[in-house]
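User: Some background: our group keeps a shared notebook of sequences we're curious about, and every so often someone picks one and asks for a predicted structure to add to the entry. Today it's my turn. The entry only has the sequence so far, pasted here. Could you supply the structure so I can complete it?
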Amino acid sequence: MFKKIVLFLLFCPFLTWAKDYQFKLHVKNLPSDSRPLLLRVYNGDLFVLDSVPAVNGEDITFHIPEDTRPGVLRAVLGLAPGYSSMMMPPQPVALNLIFNRENIEISTDYQNPQDGAVVLVSTENKLYFDFIKSDLVFYSKLGLLEQVVQNYPEEDEFYQRALAHYLKLQNEREKFIEKTAKSNTKTLASRIIKALKMPVLPGKLLPEERDSLFNLQYLSQVEFNDTNLLYTNVYTDRIFRFIQMYMKQTATPRENEANCIRALDRLVPMLDVNPVIQQHILQFLIKGFETMGMEEVLAHISSNYLQQCGSNSDIIKQRLEAYSRMAVGQKVPDFTLNDAQGQPFNLYDDISPYTLILFWHTQCGHCQMLMKTLPDLSQEEFFSKHQVRIVGVSVDENREDWEKFSETYPLDWVNTYTEGSFRSQVAADYNLFATPTMFLIDSDHNIISKPLTLEELKNSIGQLK
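Assistant: Of course. Here's the predicted structure to add to the notebook entry:
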């Protein structure tokens, strides 16, 4: 009998050697209806790793496939306490951790999973969470000292002591990070920690000087040469924050697009050290700028950095080239569509000093707000005074919705409809993804501006000669 068991194990090695790693999570106050997920991070995206974990009360066991690349994982436990369906977007209750081919066991509280985490098993996560907790104390101290060095009288002796401690605290953090990296070279946690270095700032600076110096040195602390960090949120979080530094709440959308282009032109040359990382970071940025509707930024990427997106990224190149084709200064494509009276209208045949092409949809809330305002501007002779003709193109799914709206809409315009909505040829030619979308063009059908708001539209037309 013993020999049979030995032979069975020899010929079925997968029963003894092939294994998944386990992530055991003990969650105090875990809701009974919780449906936890384990996600893996890759270049700013999240992918499901284990969606059907074993749940026993407040104990969760996730299985991590043996071939999973080392990186950052995210355990999503549910939605934040007090969440209602009116909140947009829903806030997840989540815990970020490091996986590097080892079993993991962590205890935490559903009310505060990240800060309340206690690592029971995992060399990587003990190192990582110990650093995160010490960093919270560091930033708490630094924030208090920063108030002193910015506002306390310089001639006071206490100010000098506070300033010295302010600089000492920053330098101690830098030294600790370097020491951690050197003494734990085989860990992923040490590489993540090293990428969290921050600029060391002098004490007495004006807020504008402080922001400028911080922005200037912020990315110089990061070495963009570790492809393993693509499986973490280190690069993407850092770059997102860098871009945010350039955007201003008081700026117009166009001004912020110009700010983002400035940020890009500083960032992209820093990625030259590793073509693989450069390609992936550009893809991450493209996706983000598409989400924000920053077409001028995307056109800039197409004109200046398209080749750096990777030779195998044909879909991305096509999208970028479409943004470039529809950038300011380019000629818009021709189209022929029937108007509300059933008569064909050809864009190129129409001879007007200026034309506003407006893509809209009857169910679009922003379109409805814009459409209410256009008749008032027309009555004030705003468009006629500047020799602007309006050509509307409805992208409604149902023709009847467009026809019903058109029956009572009081505007002197060319009112057309395209079959196929966003799947139509016109929508494809104009790289249309959302409504309202506006193109202000001249008599040669070249794009003068692409206003995003009513105010931008009025400013663009107001500047016409």
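Suggested note for the entry: Residues 336-462 form a domain with the Glutaredoxin fold (CATH 3.40.30.10). The first strand starts at residue 21 and ends at 28.
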